[in-house]
Amino acid sequence: MEEHQKTAEEDRVGKGGKLAYGMGAVAENAMQNGISVMANPFFNVALNVAPSLLGIAVMLFRIWDAITDPIMGWISDRTQSRFGRRRPYIVCGAIAGGVLFALMWWCPRGMGTTFYFTWYMVVSILFYTAFTVFGVPYVALGYELSPDYHERTRIMSFRTWFQSIAGFCIQWLFWLTQRDCFDDTVDGMRWVGIGFGALMIIMGITPGIFLKERRLTSAELDANHSKKGLRSVLSVFKVKPFVYLLGALVTAVAGMFLVIIFGFYINVYYIFGGDMKAASTVLGAGGTVYHVICMASIPLIAWTSTRLGKKAALQIFLFLAILGNAVKWWVFTPGNPWLQLIATVLIAPGLSAVWTLLASMTADVTDLDELENGTRREGAFGAFYGWTMKLGFAICFFVAGLILEWTGFDAALGGAQSPDTLKSMLWLYAVVPVVGLAGTMLCVWRFPITENVAREVRKKLDARNS
């Protein structure tokens, strides 16, 4: 049994600092998921662009991410300015991201599929470049706010809590576009997009304005600048504990997001027979319940992590998520659309634990990396953590579009989809996440950094840097 120690006063981050960092997570989640959630209802259902084409667009701009994220991590780690290594990029990226999100939905009407495909791809590349400029330094800033094992979990708990606020808003975007004050989905998303883009800007610039960064020692600065080129960034893959975390992240993202868009189609076409307005209410309410449960579970996740350790806590909550996905086959039924909330209540704490504890465990890896390699590379670790997540999303949405067409779905049929198509969607929606999250549990079990290991690493670093 490990001995759990209290956090030293000098290692604590005040509530104001945690709040400022958490508010940035609203922009982070909005940039991560806002476009992907609305792309299919807007471009596929409203503008009749094939799901496979949307998937190709996602793959193209995620390839661009593969280039920009590591570069941004390298730049952020090596930047020296009177405003810090991270804050200038956080502010500029948030502003650009909010503007480009609003622009996404203002494509002219009456154009062809090729035009809409090109519009979606080009604006997305610009938007996700802005997200990289904001997101990589933002994540890195969170890793370095405190050196304490448990305080890092508390910081990431604020981040996850505010991510749920953004998720709550995202779940109601489609519902908002269906209000009677708008002519149709296209008109609705144009004006909703402006409001949501403004929210991204306000929340995104907050950590860049109000947080103070940790100043590196002269030895740390010299070490960072002595390793030139992007080869030093790529060497994060030689840090074995980080590879286990990436494995956990990949399997979690693949399991949940490979079929996540099926929830929209199952509700609209299976539960409500093509009635999008009726489905939008259940989808919005389901998203609300999900994020309320996420927020409510975060103190429990932090409490469990403090007493059992991050690994054990994460595995407990992952088991709940596996159970929640397994019951989807029985709780998604046209006779009682609200029964699906049972699955939501079980899944939400598990995914909250994934986002909170994997991020906290990555911060622990940065200390081990400094001890073994002599550099502070929060930016590099944050870049590849975020890049892995975004690439996972890209592959998932690309493959999901192909799977959706494979099931026989045809938007032109409206509510007249074949029973076999709808049953195939539901079966995949239940089984794929179970398999993916089981893989996540295995990767977490192999992760070697416990609380005692983390504290020993910290003691050695403090002794060396003093």
Automatic annotation (TrEMBL):
GO terms for biological process: carbohydrate transport; sodium ion transport. Signal peptide: none annotated. GO terms for cellular component: plasma membrane. The chain crosses the membrane at residues 45-67, 88-106, 118-140, 160-177, 189-211, 242-266, 278-301, 313-332, 338-359, 380-404, 424-445. Belongs to the sodium:galactoside symporter (TC 2.A.2) family. One of its GO terms (molecular function) is symporter activity. It comes from Pontiella desulfatans. PROSITE patterns: NA_GALACTOSIDE_SYMP. Keywords: Cell membrane, Membrane, Transmembrane, Transmembrane helix, Transport. It is found in: Cell membrane. InterPro entries: MFS_2 (IPR039672), MFS_trans_sf (IPR036259), Na/Gal_symport_CS (IPR018043). Its main location: membrane. It is a multi-pass membrane protein. This is Melibiose carrier protein.
